[in-house]
Amino acid sequence: MVIEYALSTPKVDFYNITSLVREAVAKSGVTSGMTLVYCPHTTAAVTINENADPDVVRDLLLALAKTFPDRPEFRHAEGNSAAHLKSSAIGASVTVIIEAGQVVLGTWQSIYFCEFDPPRNRKFYVQIIGA
Q1: What does the alpha-carbon distance between residue 26 and residue 71 come to, in Å, rounded to a whole number?
Q2: Cβ pair 128, 4 in contact under 8 A
Q3: Is pTM beyond 0.85 here?
Q4: 71, 72, 86, 75: which is closest to 118 by C-alpha?
């Protein structure tokens, strides 16, 4: 079962999509298995990280900006090479265990859609795989 979600991303940020993934798992009726969360964009990504302290996301965005700054020697015509680099570094998907009908995340973990080239209308997919 694959569910497509739409997401509006007005700024560079990590957008918490955990509730949408939980909704997809609940709709599926799968009680044991896994879910794949996939981003079909080359300037965005998906990751799992801390949800308790918003400074973690802020620090991640700062570190990514410093690690992958826009550079005048980049040749990509769209001018968003730094966004492509960030997307490749973070990755296009995450896999999460489903047990007892729930996604298995650590106490402080959430699933994030990472936007690096806003503003955009994005989509992501959640595939549920039963055991």
Answers
A1: 44
A2: no
A3: yes
A4: 86
